[in-house]
What does this fold into?
Amino acid sequence: MTPRVEIIGVYPIEAAEPCHLVELWVRGSAAEFDIGKFTQEEPGQPQSNWQVPYGEKKINLSGTEIVADLWEIMGEGGDAWKGDVRVAFFFHYLRPSEPMLTPFGRVAIPTPSAMPERLSFMKYDAPG
It folds into this structure.
C-alpha cells in the first residue's frame, strides 16, 4: 500500500523571502522516504532549481514538539519512518494554488492560515 500525504496546514511566516511553514502527515509509511522530494514544479526551470523543504522536523503525533531533525535520521531507517509520520518544514516561494509534488504523488495545498500556537517551537533561521 502506498503511503498517503495529507497537508494539515500551510502558515505564512515572517522572512526576508516569501516563506511558509508546512505541516503534514505521511500516513502509512512503511520505510524511510526522501523529504527532499517534496517540492513544487517551477515552470521554465530545471528540477534542480525547484524549491525543497528547509528546516524539516519530525514532530510528535499531536504536533506539539520536535521528535527528530529529519536530516539527522536520514539513512538510519528504523521505526522513526514507519506508520503515521507527522512532519513540519519551511518552504520558500510556496504557491498554494499549485500542488505539492511528493514521493507519493501530487497533493493539493490548503489555503494558508495563521500558524497555530502549538507550533511556536518551529523557529525559522534564514538559510545562508
Remarks:
- The radius of gyration is 14 Å.
- The chain has one helix and seven strands.
- Helices lie at 70-73.
- The first helix runs from residue 70 to 73.
